[in-house]
Design goal:
This protein has 171 residues and is of the alpha+beta class. Helix content is 27%, strand content 27%. It has a four-stranded antiparallel β-sheet, with helices on both faces. Strands 5-7-6 form a three-stranded antiparallel β-sheet, covered by helices on one side. 33% of the residues are buried.
């Protein structure tokens, strides 16, 4: 059982350890982290994530986004997930949601549970569909998406990399 919690200053140390685990695993991208993987300062990232919650403070180049850490029963960060309330031109292929599970916690069902919880959040804010994209070689993520009702819709290519778009109907 996991819980989703918004990032706070209180989680800084554990969040940086979470980020470091990806780096040590040779992974440069943390999907669903709203650029945690690219920012040097946790405080800067936290301000960005907090600002992007509201239409009044969202970065004009971004969209309103809810970002959550996923905590296990022992209150350890096992993943991160975001929910973009709408899609702009850049996100039209990528979708409403991204997520990552820390390397040491994979294959335990956390991603499936995280997506299930974010689907409920999407319903609460009145979304009809949730769009997700995934590289065809990411079998674990495809399984996570399809277990949550995702149906393949189409493929696209971005910077020479092919990806598939899946839709989850929420109504």
């Amino acid at each position: 059982m996991i819980t989703l919690k918004r990032p706070t200053k209180e989680y800084e140390s554990e969040a940086l350890t979470f980020k470091q685990e990806f780096i040590e695993n040779g992974e440069t991208t943390i999907n669903g982290s709203e650029l945690l993987d690219q920012m040097d300062s946790y405080d800067e990232w936290l301000k960005s994530v907090t600002d992007n919650i509201s239409p009044d403070t969202v970065n004009p180049e971004w969209v309103v986004t809810d970002t959550y850490f996923a905590f296990d029963e022992d209150d350890n960060i096992v993943g991160i997930i975001d929910l973009r309330h709408e899609l702009n031109d850049f996100l039209k292929d990528f979708g409403n949601c991204g997520y990552s599970v820390r390397p040491s916690e994979r294959r335990k069902g956390y991603a499936t549970e995280m997506l299930k919880l974010i689907i409920e959040r999407a319903r609460q804010i009145g979304m009809d569909r949730l769009q997700l994209s995934v590289e065809p070689t990411n079998e674990a993520s495809i399984k996570t998406i399809t277990q949550n009702g995702g149906k393949y819709e189409r493929s696209f290519t971005f910077e020479g990399i092919e990806a598939a778009v899946y839709m989850i109907d929420l109504v």
